[in-house]
């Protein structure tokens, strides 16, 4: 019987492929799958109210708000349109800067309105005290400085605040336009597990 070398090679390749696929582990990752709340350790949802003061210091030898960008038009704009700052501000229990620190506000704000002083903000409130120590809330939104009360969106969090959602109310207590120093009172209303 004549054996065709091409048939022999094809048969060998098929056998090798078949055996190797049978011997490979079958625990492949899925792109998505449905999870139960129990798998993720999610219990009942809690609504928490957090109250603290935000100290944005742009002056002195140790500022917590640093101006990092400025558009050429900012110099002539009364709204500071195009300016951007990065922050690492203290969050305190009371309005005095010497009050107990409960966390840090880290992120940035951009002057994003060409007609009025309004910020587009991206903050992470990093908590360092109590049951929220080590947890973070992420804040996003438009902050028109001329409004007495501004609402920002809580878009998520980590630690105790996994799956968080809610809103933050900001009220300016004091602001010095010459130095850039400001103190803002925050009330956060957040659903979390």
Automatic annotation (TrEMBL):
InterPro entries: Allene_oxi_cyc_Dirigent (IPR044859), Dirigent (IPR004265). One of its GO terms (cellular component) is apoplast. It is found in: Secreted, Extracellular space, Apoplast. The keyword Secreted applies. It comes from the Eukaryota. One of its GO terms (biological process) is phenylpropanoid biosynthetic process. The keyword Secreted applies. Keywords: Apoplast, Secreted. It holds the Pfam family Dirigent. Gene3D superfamilies: Allene oxide cyclase-like. Dirigent proteins impart stereoselectivity on the phenoxy radical-coupling reaction, yielding optically active lignans from two molecules of coniferyl alcohol in the biosynthesis of lignans, flavonolignans, and alkaloids and thus plays a central role in plant secondary metabolism. Homodimer. Belongs to the plant dirigent protein family. PANTHER family: NUCLEOPORIN-RELATED. This is Dirigent protein.
